[in-house]
Each structure stands twice: as structure tokens, then as C-alpha cells.
């Protein structure tokens, strides 16, 4: 019963708007707006143990290009 109750609890801080994504020459910057305060932990899926792929207690994460499983593809317009 306790496990079921704990699993049904909802964290009271949610993303309230579409995240802002900015591509820069050396990184991708993602910013989020939440209901209560800064998120405690933002990370790239499957790279939570890599310090370059994690942000703590901030509303943004900066991901260096070519890191955290990211691939780069150049396009000619």
C-alpha cells in the first residue's frame, strides 16, 4: 500500500510552456518555465551521469555540440 501511494504522488513543479531552444555555434541552449521554481534536475536521456549533459537547480541546460549523444549534420542551402 505504501509503495502504491508513493508511486501516485505528483511532483508539484511542472513545465508550463513550450521550452525555448536556441542553437548556438558551440552549444544548444534549452530553457524551461515551471510552475513553482527551477527544476532540480534537467538531463539528456541516457546521459544523466555525464556532467556535460546535466543541469541542477537551474531553468536551463546548455548542451555542447557533438556531446551527450548529439549528432551534427551540415546542410547546404
UniProtKB/TrEMBL annotation:
Tell me which InterPro entries the record gives: CUT_N, ZP_dom
- Tell me which domain of life the UniProt entry assigns to the organism this sequence originates from: Eukaryota
Cross-referenced Pfam families, in alphabetical order?
CUT_N
PROSITE patterns recorded: ZP_2 (PS51034)
Q: Which residues form the ZP domain?
A: 22-77
Name of protein: ZP domain-containing protein
